[in-house]
Write a structure and sequence with these properties.
about 325 residues; D-Maltodextrin-Binding Protein, domain 2
Length: about 325
């Protein structure tokens, strides 16, 4: 994959972040999401790629833009699988809470898991803990393994978990080990990345979140040298049937990194909408805005943080 595409991908996440940032704290999730989707779709139209959305805003009858199966890009260039979440954290954007991001991931065609819109049980760690955890192991065993790899006592290990009723038992188990917990309302892509980011203060993510977000996080963790494991958690028979239709032979399979992302030729980009664990949010200034982004390549493990100043007279779509 041409490394020069990286900056084009960042421009797409910047556009989505800036447009959705106008809606931070205004209580309108749908409008914030629509603004992000529309801006990202426009940005894609000028990128030289033959892209197909494999993870997006939903099925074609559910989403007018960036739907699963939609072709994006100029049609020239490499055939790519595209996974997007134009606004990861619609609720937290509407509330003005932390960790909302515009997110993009890409890999050569056929290399990203085409995950249905269901839940996924996940465990994610950073580079030092790769190979030490197992989705099927007990909470206690996994946390002890992380503590050993990081050479830290258990009571200094910090676990990120989504604040959901379904995690009550999990939270109690973690607390009994003596580990610290950071609960998040939404944004489990950022949560999965956090253990692999220096100075995030997070050592491991555990729990059930979105399956599409799990695939996107896997691209980022492949770039960061971390690890994520997952297993789909279906809510009904219809979701199981959809997974089989998408080509999944074993819908109960424990999904490893190479099941989620089958190539080192992958890229990830994200721009902060609100301040978070990894990225600062959009800040509006006189006649413009400042953005903070991350862009990564799996092949080289290159990680770039980009701070950009945007002048609105040059961006009429804003």
């Amino acid at each position: 994959m041409d490394r020069n595409l990286a900056l084009d991908f960042v421009r797409a996440t910047e556009a989505a972040a800036i447009n959705s940032a106008f809606w931070v704290g205004k209580g309108n999730e749908n409008q914030a999401d629509h603004a992000a989707v529309e801006a990202m779709r426009k940005a894609f139209s000028v990128i030289d790629m033959d892209g197909t959305i494999v993870i997006g805003e939903g099925e074609r009858d559910e989403a007018p833009m960036l739907y699963i199966g939609e072709k994006v890009g100029s049609g020239r260039g490499m055939k790519l699988d595209i996974a997007v979440d134009p606004l990861e954290g619609t609720t937290i954007t509407a509330r003005g809470d932390p960790n909302a991001m515009a997110v993009f991931a890409a890999a050569p065609a056929g290399c990203l898991l085409n995950a249905p819109d269901t839940y996924m049980d996940k465990i994610a760690v950073g580079p030092k803990c790769v190979g030490a955890v197992d989705l099927d192991a007990s909470v206690e065993d996994n946390l002890n393994a992380v503590a050993k790899k990081l050479d830290k006592p258990l009571d200094e290990i910090t676990v990120m978990i989504m604040d959901r009723d379904r995690h009550r038992e999990l939270i109690e188990k973690v607390r009994k080990t003596g580990c610290r917990i950071k609960l998040i309302r939404d944004g489990d892509i950022a949560g999965a990345l956090a253990p692999a980011i220096d100075d995030s203060g997070i050592d491991i993510l555990i729990g059930i979140g979105g399956a599409p977000e799990g695939v996107i996080a896997a691209v980022a963790l492949k770039c960061l040298g971390g690890e994520i494991q997952g297993r789909l958690k279906f809510r009904n028979e219809e979701e199981k049937a959809r997974a089989k239709k998408m080509g999944m032979k074993d819908i109960n399979q424990k999904l490893m990194m190479d099941d989620l992302v089958r190539s080192n030729e992958a890229m990830f980009a994200a721009t902060g909408v609100t301040d978070g664990t990894i990225l600062r949010g959009v800040s509006f200034q006189s006649h413009g805005a400042k953005t903070h982004s991350i862009v990564m390549r799996a092949k080289t493990k290159t990680i770039r943080f980009i701070e950009a100043q945007h002048h609105f007279e040059h961006f009429p779509e804003y």
